[in-house]
Amino acid sequence: MKIAIIGGGPAGLYAAILLKKQRPQAEITVYERNRADDTFGFGVVFSDATLDNFEKYDPPSYRRITEEFAYWDDIAVHFRGTVHRVGGNGFCGCSRRTLLLILQERARELGVTLLFETDIDDEARFADADLIVLADGINSRFRDKHIEHFQPQVDLRSNKFAWMGSTRPLDAFTFIFQETEWGPFIAHAYQYEAGRSTWIFETDAETFKRAGLEGLDEQQSADRMAKIFDWFLDGHPLLINRSMWRNFPMIRSQRWVKGNMVLLGDAKATAHFSIGSGTKLAMEDAIALADAMAQAPNVNAALQTYEHGRREEVEKTQHAADVSLVWFEHVDRFWDFDPVQFAFGVMTRAKAITYDNLTLRAPEFVREVDKAFAKQVRGKGFDVDLDKPVAPMFQPLKLREMEVANRAVVSPMCMYSAREGVPTDFHLVHYGSRAIGGAGLIFTEMTCVGRDARITPGCTGLWNDEQQAAWTRIVDFVHANSAAKICLQLGHAGRKGATKLMWEGMDRPLEEGGWDTISASPLPYFPDSQVPREMDRAAMDHVKAEFVAATLRGEACGFDMLEMHCAHGYLLASFISPLTNQRTDEYGGTLANRLRYPLEVFEAMRAAWPAHKPMSVRISATDWAAGGITGDDAVAVARAFGEAGVDLVDVSTGQTVRDAQPIYGRMFQTPFSDQVRNEARVATMCVGNITTADQVNTILAAGRADLVALGRPHLVDPSFTMRAAAWYGADVACPPQYLPGREQIFRNSVRDRQDFEDLKIKGKPKTRAELKAEATKPLAAE
Questions:
Q1: Who contacts 358 (Cβ-Cβ below 8 Å, separation ≥6)?
Q2: Which of 286, 337, 407, 651 could form an SS bridge with 14, CB 3.0 to 4.6 Å?
C-alpha cells in the first residue's frame, strides 16, 4: 500500500505513525512545506484523557511526550483584583516544536519517509497512491481547491487574538481579565516547559482599535501587551513568533472525503483555542482514521467509516468550543458580576464543567459561589443564611409582590387533553401533583383566549364560565396543598391552529372539524396547511379584547402570575418574525413596527392585570433560520417588553417555520437566556433540554437565568424538586399527608450522596500532576 500525507503537523505525523504500525510494509511519505524544525506558535495543551489515548495507541511516543510535559491541576481566574483557583483539572503542556520533533523521530523509527521543504499543490502527483491524507492545516489549499466538493463553511469570529510566549513561569492554566482605558483584554496563559509559557491575548474589535493596535508590527504589539499585563508578567518579556493579530476562523466542512483523499485536523474543522482542543482534535482524527483503516475491508470503506464515525465527536467538541468562544466574545456582559460568580462563569462556560462537578473537585470554591449567590438574594430583601447557604436552586425569588420559594419551574407543556377548552380531572392531577412535588412555580400550558385561538381540539381555553370554574378548582388545589405559585399562560395559535393532537400528527392540519385561522400575513405553515387570513384592524381589536377578557378571568381564578405567549410562530410571534410577517403597513417592516401589535396586546393585558402581580412574556430568541429573529433581536424585543412593564422574559427558541435548523444539545437555549438577561438587563427564565438539578444550579450560579423551567423531567417525576431538595439538604414545603415519605428520602439522601461522592472520588484516577508530585515527594525520614 502507498500512502501520501500532505502536511507534517501533529495530525499528519501521528497518522503516519499509526498507519505504519498497522502496515509495516506500506510505503508512507509525509510531505511538509516547512523545514523540520520550523514551528509557529509556542505550546500545546492536552488533558489527561487525551494522554490516555496516546498511551493506548503508541506507548513509545507517549512516553517521550510525557517526559517533556509541564503538568498542572489548577485553573486560576484573575478578575478585578481577585484570583480564584480551581483544582483537579488534569492538564499538561508541551512545546509545539518539541512535540513535532518527537513525532518526527518516532515516524522515522518506524520507517516513514519525511520530506521537508516540499511544496505540494496538485494531488495528481500521487496518482499511484492508495490513500492521500490532506493534513495541510487551517489554510488547506486542497480543501480550498476542491471547495465545491468539501463545502467548507468558514465563520470568522469577531474577536481579535494574537499568540505570544513568555519566560514567566506559571503553576496553573491562567485566565487574566484586564480592564483598560480602551476596554477589556483577556490573556489565556499556561506553562509548557521550564522557563516558557504560552500567552494568547484576546479582545473585541472596538477595544482593539481604541487601543491603537491596528497597524502595529509584532514587536510593537508585544510591547503594548507587556505594558497592559506588566503587573502579572513581573518583568518577564513577551516573545513573538508570527504573533500577528487575527480573527479566529471556525471551519466546518460538509464533506471530509473525496475519492481516496481525506481531510484531517484543522484542514477539515477547527475548534477555538479557549478549550485547548486544536492539536487534540488533530491527533484524535489520526487515531480515528487508523482505527477505520484497521477495521474496513478497503480504503473507500475505511474513509466512509472514519467520516461517519468521527463526525459526531468533532461536532460535539466544536459545539463546546462555540459556546466557550461566545462567552469570551461577550465577556462585557459579565463585567459587573461579583468576582466569584464571574469565575464560576469562566469555569462552566462550555457546559462540560458543572456545579456538582466543581463541588467534588473544589468544594471551597463552590461554597464561595453559594455565599455570593445568597448575598445577592439577601440584597433583594430575603433573610437567607449567608454562613451555610442552600444551593442556588433553593434560593427564593420575588417578582413584584409574588415570592417563589425556589427557582425550579414546571415548564408550560401542552397536554392536549381538554374538552372544548375545559380542563379535566387529568389537568387537576397533572398540575396538583407537580405543585405538591415541590416546584416553586407552575406554568399552565398555553391556554387559548378563544375557541378559534386553539392549536388543537384538545387545547385548554379561558373564554367561558365553565373553563373558568375548572381552572379555579385547579388553582385552589395548588394553593391549598402546596407552597407553589401558579402562572397562567395565555396565547393564540394563529396560523398554527386547527391542527391534530400532538400524537396524531404535530402541526398537521385537521382533516375535518377545523376552523378559520388568522396571522400577521397569509402564509401557511405547511404547504398543505390552511392559508390564514391576514389580520385587519377589526381582527386585531377583537383578538386584543379576547386576551383582556381572558386576563380578567385569570384574575378571577386566582392565578398568581400571567404570561403572554409570544413565541413558537403562534399568532403574536408571527408579527415579530420577518419570516412570518410580510406586511407593508405600520405593523410590518422594521422590528419596532413588527413589535407594535404584540406590545399593544401586552399593554392592554398589563392594564387589566393587578399591579401587584407579575407578568412575563415567552419569546423565541432565534428562529433557527436564515433571515429570522436573532439573539440580538431578542435583546431588543426583551427591552421593549421591559419598558412596557414585563417582569420576566421566558426565553425559548424556534418553531416559527417548519424548515428551521435548531442546534440541539444540553441546555441548548440557555445562551439566549444569558444574552437577554445580561444585555437587556431583565429577569429571565430559561428552558430547553435541562434535565438535572445540577444543571439548574449551574445556570443560576453563573448568572444565566433567574428561573429554570424543566418540562420532560417533570413529566416522569412530579417530585423532581423534592428529590433535589433532599439531595442538596434544602428545605421544601410538603403536605402533611406526604411527610413520612419526605422524611425518608431526606434521611436516605444524606447517606446516598456521601456514598456517591466517595465513589466518584475513589473512582477518579489521579491526574498526572498529582502522580508526578507524589513521585517527586521526598521519602519521610524513618
A1: 86, 344, 347, 348, 365, 366, 369
A2: 286
Residues 6+ apart with CB under 8 A from 525: 495, 496, 507, 569, 657, 658
Count of domains for the chain: 2
Q: Which DSSP category does 70 fall into? A: E
State mean pLDDT over 84-88.
90
What is the structure's pLDDT at 779?
Answer: 44
642, 646, 648, 654: CA torsion to nearest 10: -80
Give me the mean pLDDT over the 326-335 stretch.
Answer: 95
CATH of the domain at 417: 3.20.20.70
What's the pLDDT score for residue 765? 59
Query: Do 464 and 383 sit in the same domain of this protein?
Result: yes
319 pLDDT band (50/70/90 cuts)? confident
- The yes-or-no answer on residue 416 being catalytic is no
Catalytic residue, candidates 570, 587, 597, 728: 570
Average of per-residue pLDDT across 97-115: 95
Range of the domain at 195: 2-330
Cell of 336: 459587573
Would the pLDDT of 38 be above 80? no
Mean pLDDT of the chain: 93
Strands (E), 393-524: 397-399, 402-404, 408-410, 441-443, 447-448, 485-491, 518-519
Identify which has the larger pLDDT, 299 or 782.
299
Q: Are 195 and 95 in contact (CB under 8 A)?
A: no
Q: Which three cell numbers stand for residue 499?
A: 391542527
Report the C-alpha gap between 227 and 109 in whole angstroms.
46
Residues 6+ apart with CB under 8 A from 261: 123, 132, 133, 134, 142, 146
Q: Convert 141-176 into a string of H (helix), E (strand) and C (coil).
A: HHHHHCHHHHCEEEEEEEEEEEEEEECCCCCCEEEE
Name 682's Cβ contacts closer than 8 Å, sequence gap at least 6.
Answer: 638, 639, 641, 642, 646, 648, 649, 676
Within 10 Å of residue 239's Cβ, how many Cβ atoms?
16
User: For residue 131, how many C-alpha atoms fall within 13 Å in the half-sphere facing its CB?
Assistant: 31
Most distant CA pair in the chain: distance in Å?
95
Residue 747 falls within a domain, yes or no?
A: no
pLDDT in tens, 659-718: 999 888 888 899 999 999 999 999 999 999 999 999 999 999 999 999 999 999 999 999
Examine the domain organization and report whether 314 and 359 are in the same domain. no
For strands 561-566 and 485-491, give the pairing: parallel
What is the grid cell recorded at 158?
A: 469577531
Q: Sorting pLDDT into bands at 50, 70 and 90, what band is 80?
A: very high
Q: Could you give the CA distance from residue 459 to residue 733 in angstroms, rounded to a whole number? A: 31
| CB-CB contact of 2 with 26 (8 Å) | yes
Q: Whole-angstrom Cα distance, residue 317 to residue 314?
A: 5
Residue 771 covered by a domain: no
pTM, to two decimals: 0.92
Whether residues 470 and 514 share a domain: the answer is yes
The burial of 536, by beta-carbon neighbours within 10 Å (0-12 exposed, 13-18 middle, 19 or more buried), is given as exposed
CB 29 within 8 A of CB 113: yes
d(CA 620, CA 136): 41
Q: Does position 212 have pLDDT exceeding 70, yes or no? A: yes
